[in-house]
Amino acid sequence: MSASLGESVSTGSDLEVLLGLLDLEQIGDDRFLGHHPEKVWSRTFGGQLVAQAIVAAGRTVGPERPVHAVNAHFVRGGNVKKPIEYRVERHRDGRSFANRTVTAYQDDQELFVMLAAFQDWATGLEHAAPQPQVPDPEQLPRVEESFAGLEDRLKMFVNAPHPIDMRYTNDPAWILKGTGGTLDYNRVWMKADGPLPDDPLIHVATLGYSSDTTVLDSIITTHGLSWGFDRIIAATVNHSIWFHRPFRFDDWALYATQSPVAAGSRGLATGHFYSRAGELLATVVQEGVIRHFPSR
C-alpha cells in the first residue's frame, strides 16, 4: 500500500488510509519515507508524525521488544504536499532495553524529533489509578453526530480524516459552549474504526496517532472556550507517551484527559488510556502553545 514519492495515500476507508500511512517505505539503512493522506489539515497532524515515527523506530528493533516510551518535540509545521523522511539513529541494543532517536525531515529541515525506548516485558510490582466511571461506548453517539448543525463552525473537524471511532462521555467543547458550561476534564472512548492487523507495533502506533486528539480539549473547556467558536491558536510543542501493558487498539479504550496548568501562553494536558476492563494501558503528557484572542 506504500505510495510513490510525492503521492498522498487515498485508498479505501479512513482507517485503510491510516494503515497506508503506517506502511512506511524503506529508502535506505534506517531511513523511511512517510506520506500524507488526501484529507489534510493546514500542516502535518502531530499524531501522524508520532505514529509514523513509532513505526520507523520499531522497524529497527524487531517485534520481540515492545515500545515502552516515546518523547517527541515538534520543531516545524510540516508541508502536507510533500512526503516526510524519517531517519532513525540507534543508541543502544542491550539485554533488555533498546533506544532510538527518530528525526523527521522535509527538504533537509527538521520537523520533529522523537526519543523511543523499548523494553522486554517482565513481571513486577503493579498498581494503577482507577478508571473513571463513565457510560459504555455503545450508549454514546459517534463524535461526527455532534457536528450536526455546526458544520460551518467545525469545518476543520468535519473535513478531517476519521479513522478512529470516538465517543465523548461528556459534552464536547462545541456543545458545552452552547450551554455556557465549563469542564476541567474530557473523557472519550476510542478505537480503530475497524479491525487492525495483529502486529502489536501497529496497535501502538494507532494509539499514538489517537493520543494527539482531544488531549488539549480540557485546557479550553476549563475556560468555557471551544474550537470553531472562539479565536484560539493551538500548536503542540512536545508530546510523551508511556505504554504500560500490551493492548489491541481495535478494542475500546477510554482516553481520560485533564489539564493541571496553563501559563505563559502554554497549556499542559495529561491523559490516561484505559481498557474496557479498567486496565491502565498508557499515559500521555502533552504541552501546547494555546493563545486565545477574545472578541472586542
UniProtKB/TrEMBL annotation:
SUPFAM superfamilies: Thioesterase/thiol ester dehydrase-isomerase. One of its GO terms (biological process) is acyl-CoA metabolic process. Residues 162-289 form the Acyl-CoA thioesterase 2 C-terminal domain. Transmembrane segments: none annotated. One of its GO terms (molecular function) is fatty acyl-CoA hydrolase activity. Keywords: Hydrolase, Lipid metabolism. Residues 43-119 form the Acyl-CoA thioesterase-like N-terminal HotDog domain. The keyword Lipid metabolism applies. The keyword Lipid metabolism applies. It catalyses: a fatty acyl-CoA + H2O = a fatty acid + CoA + H(+). CDD domains: Thioesterase_II_repeat1 (cd03444), Thioesterase_II_repeat2 (cd03445). Homotetramer. PANTHER family: ACYL-COA THIOESTERASE, ACYL-COENZYME A THIOESTERASE 8. Belongs to the C/M/P thioester hydrolase family. This is Acyl-CoA thioesterase 2.
